[in-house]
Amino acid sequence: MFKEKFKAVNDGYTFDDVLLKPLKSSIEPKNADVSSYFSKHIKINIPVISSPMDTVTEDKMAIAMARYGALGVLHRNMSANEQVEMVKKVKKEESIIIRDVFSIDPETPINVARTIMLTKNIAGLPVVESGRLIGILTKRDLEFSESNGKIKDIMTKDVITADVNVSIEDAKYILYKNRVEKLPLVDKNGKLMGLITAKDIKTREKFPNATRDKEGQLMVGAAIGAYDLDRAINLEKAGSDFVVVDTAHAHNENVLSSLKKIRKNIDIDIIAGNIATAEAAEDLISMGVDGLRVGIGPGSICTTRIVAGVGVPQLTAISDVADVARGNNIPVIADGGIRYSGDMVKAFAAGASTVMLGSLLAGTEESPGTEIIINGRKYKSYRGMGSLGAIIAGKSDRYGKLGTDEFIAEGVEGSVPYRGRVSENLFQFVGGIKTGMGYLGATKIDDLKEKAIFIKISNNGLKESHPHDIRIVSEPPNYQNSNIY
Ligand code: XMP
Questions:
Q1: How far does residue 385's CA lie from ligand 1's centre (Å)?
Q2: What is the pTM of this model?
Q3: Which single residue of 110, 167, 380, 454 has CA 20 to 30 Å from 315?
Q4: Options 3.40.50.720, 3.90.550.10, 3.10.580.10, 3.30.830.10; CATH of 110-198
């Protein structure tokens, strides 16, 4: 019986085992479209996700990722309240429609209004009487008025307004046509329902590819433990666009029943993982999840495969899961082990819709890791969420739980080279992906999945793939990892 096991052994492939065959193409890389689905209801312009790790994604990273068209998942090595506050911070970073508008009563004395505008740094203050908008107080109104008196005497009375359901494009037109800076939104009865400012519209135009929700705010989500229903509910209330149920092994009966419970209680997208098999994909999908996170042990900081002897080489894991997910219209996130943009192209070719990065983003300016200088070169700290440091810091339940006070680590702590800003890195990743699509004649990520043909390579093939027989003196930004340590 045991001998039989080896007769049934399957091959498993990872990034360095294969290359993609070049195919006849009629497209230029610059015309390739890299937009893709992160989850069932969330489409993004750059198919890259920052991992929920405490040295990778906090608010700064999530803001940068969403601004440039990608997406960040906040880690969960913090209290539920801290996580909720972080979601709100990202959401408030670029509000196109301000919902909790600060307004004043027409009877307010002019000097009080002046102080409010100064201290709150507001340039135009809606004036509201019994809930209805009756005017707006602008800096200009104040400039030419005495300090005594009421604001009802000096406010601008014929306010330019728009319906509460106005589109952003129409709002922009109204603002520019009337040369005003603020556009109050009102309902049928003239009740103040929101405010759009020209400044926020300009910011929005600076980031045309950004990942935004219906209200124009940046999208963000957060990781939760497998049994953390309360956290999921509170995150949804705080405006989180999705939750990632973050476990080392999601194909577990208890996790599955918890997923069912979470599904019943929240309406936002639920992404679950990690998994690495078709059977796991089937079971998770039947619990109603909207996205699958794939990868058991491929990560740069992971020791799961070494400690537990368990895992599936990443490209095989992706393709096994993607075969099931595709029929159900559920996007697959390839999580872990990605070192170059070429690995991203291979992950898409194997069936993933997006890639999740830890190490490649941990070295950016926007990551929360500590800066370290070694031999005059700048690095940032990076650690596995199953490393002793992360487990102790967050009392994480993702790894290391055997019901004792001792921990069994499944990750390591270290540092990665500083890599500049997120935007520069995303630019390089997208450039690499588009180049790959050009070689394959793929105009879209889905096209790439259809057309790609893998070819198995030997160790010699791999050696030949990297620069060889040269001492590299200048590393391009998309090939930084050659001589770093
Ligand atoms: P990369 O290769 O991008 O991988 O650095 C990031 C992914 O690794 C996973 N992760 C871990 N896996 N032990 C593990 O086995 C750990 O301590 C650990 N921490 C993170 C996670 O899926 C992440 O997105």
A1: 7
A2: 0.89
A3: 380
A4: 3.10.580.10
